[in-house]
Amino acid sequence: IKLSKKISLFRDEIINDNEKLEINKNISMAIKENLDKKNKLLNTILDQSNKCVILIDNLGNIVNEDEGFYNMWREYKSFDGELSLLYTVIIKFAVNKDKFLKYLSLLDKKTDKLKGEFEGKDGRYFACTYCKIIIDDNEIGFICYIEDITYKKKSEMKIKENHVKYKKIVDNIPYSILLTDENNIIYNNKKSE
User: What pLDDT is stored for residue 104 in this prediction?
Assistant: First the structure.
């Protein structure tokens, strides 16, 4: 009888241990899923901080090797040959090619430095700073600093969209709303008139 009690207690401990293991397994899976989501979000944010500096000669060819360029446009990692700025950025990636070309022509004619933004066909947004390279009074090309600003741009668009949506809601409610700071009226939906 003592042996059967010991076996019974041992079996209960095994069942309890199995239940504990199953609970721990479920907790571990939930933690893993949470960490995977955070890792994906972190990678998305880090991908949005891609930056590169490219040197472009007067023919429009990229003449330097910047790993940032290949991180931004991964499809070029295995590309052999000269990369032409016109092909790489304007023809292949830019939604508004004319805007990009306008920036480049302004750089040629009016200024030594210019900033602009363009949208890629893949939905990403880029901030570009262009600066002429002049050596011994000879213009030999320009430097282009490109930063992926997609996360920032999409956040700004969402904020603007929400602002418009909530402004319409507040403007159309039948009650008067007046927002003030210490001395000024910030907002009045003019329902009290």
Answer: 66
| Residue the block writes with tokens 């069942």 | 15
CA gap 44, 6 in Å, rounded: 56
C-alpha 117/C-alpha 138 separation (Å) is 27
Q: What is the pLDDT of residue 40?
A: 74
Q: Which of 25, 30, 64, 28 is nearest to 142 (CA)?
A: 64
DSSP string for 122-182: TS-EEEEEEEEEEETTEEEEEEEEEEE-HHHHHHHHHHHHHHHHHHHHHHHSSS--EEE-S
Closest CA to 64 of 166, 141, 11: 141
Q: Mean pLDDT of all residues in the chain?
A: 76
Q: State pLDDT tens for residues 35-49.
A: 888 777 766 655 555
Give the pLDDT confidence of 147-189 residue by residue, as tens digits. 888 888 999 999 999 989 988 888 888 888 878 888 888 888 7
Task: Return the DSSP state at 30.
Answer: H
7: helix, strand or coil: helix
Question: What is the sign of the dihedral through the CA atoms of 56, 61, 63 and 68?
Answer: positive
